[in-house]
């Protein structure tokens, strides 16, 4: 079996496990993430942090993002443009949100486009070495590559539930490694 096929199997299994978490428990886990990560994530006021609004059974990190804002973070959300490219638009209090594709909402085209310094990254699976499996479309991998081409090196913090951890993610040279992971049981750096 190729690495690509192995990743697809792991992705399906871990997303099914995530989907099986009852909604009320996902909410409780998401609040625990805000508690664990809200003060542990180190940054200076004004740091640009990209988050995301949840789709499907993802963790809801809006409480975490709100806490990071109170600590001085400048927040942005990913917007998928032309079905391939992620842009990060600034999320300001009171801004109107629009449908941005893939079941998500975010700031409209009038919002400032930012380059995040810290990225809170959704994923399908992760391992104890910081390797991750995304959703298979490569959106975040391409966004990170573009940021690096511009001379940026964003810190990558994975967001997942404990049930998404696997013994080993097939890792290839082009794969992007996480600096840390935030789950309902805590914040771990790799």
UniProtKB/TrEMBL annotation:
Belongs to the 5-formyltetrahydrofolate cyclo-ligase family. This is 5-formyltetrahydrofolate cyclo-ligase. InterPro entries: FTHF_cligase (IPR002698), FTHF_cligase-like_sf (IPR024185), NagB/RpiA_transferase-like (IPR037171). Its EC number is 6.3.3.2. GO terms for biological process: folic acid-containing compound biosynthetic process; tetrahydrofolate interconversion. Its cofactor is Mg(2+). ATP binds at residues 7-11, 132-140. SUPFAM superfamilies: NagB/RpiA/CoA transferase-like. It comes from the Bacteria. It comes from Rhizobium daejeonense. One of its GO terms (molecular function) is 5-formyltetrahydrofolate cyclo-ligase activity. It catalyses: (6S)-5-formyl-5,6,7,8-tetrahydrofolate + ATP = (6R)-5,10-methenyltetrahydrofolate + ADP + phosphate. Keywords: ATP-binding, Ligase, Magnesium, Metal-binding, Nucleotide-binding. Substrate binds at residue 58. Pfam families: 5-FTHF_cyc-lig (PF01812).
């Amino acid at each position: 079996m190729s690495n690509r096929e192995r990743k697809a199997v792991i992705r399906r299994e871990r997303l099914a496990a995530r989907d099986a978490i009852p909604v009320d428990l996902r909410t409780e886990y998401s609040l625990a993430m805000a508690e664990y990560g809200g003060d542990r994530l180190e940054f200076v006021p004004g740091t640009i942090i990209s988050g995301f609004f949840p789709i499907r059974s993802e963790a809801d990190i809006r409480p975490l993002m709100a806490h990071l804002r109170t600590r001085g973070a400048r927040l942005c959300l990913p917007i998928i443009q032309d079905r391939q490219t992620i842009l990060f638009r600034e999320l300001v209090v009171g801004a109107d949100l629009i449908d941005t594709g893939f079941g998500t909402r975010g700031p409209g085209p009038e919002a400032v486009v930012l380059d995040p310094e810290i990225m809170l990254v959704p994923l399908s699976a992760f391992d104890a070495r910081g390797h991750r499996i995304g959703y298979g479309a490569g959106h975040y991998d391409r966004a990170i590559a573009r940021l690096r081409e511009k001379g940026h090196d964003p810190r990558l913090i994975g967001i997942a539930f404990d049930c998404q951890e696997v013994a080993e993610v097939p890792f290839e040279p082009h794969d992007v490694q996480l600096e840390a992971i935030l789950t309902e049981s805590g914040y771990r750096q790799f």
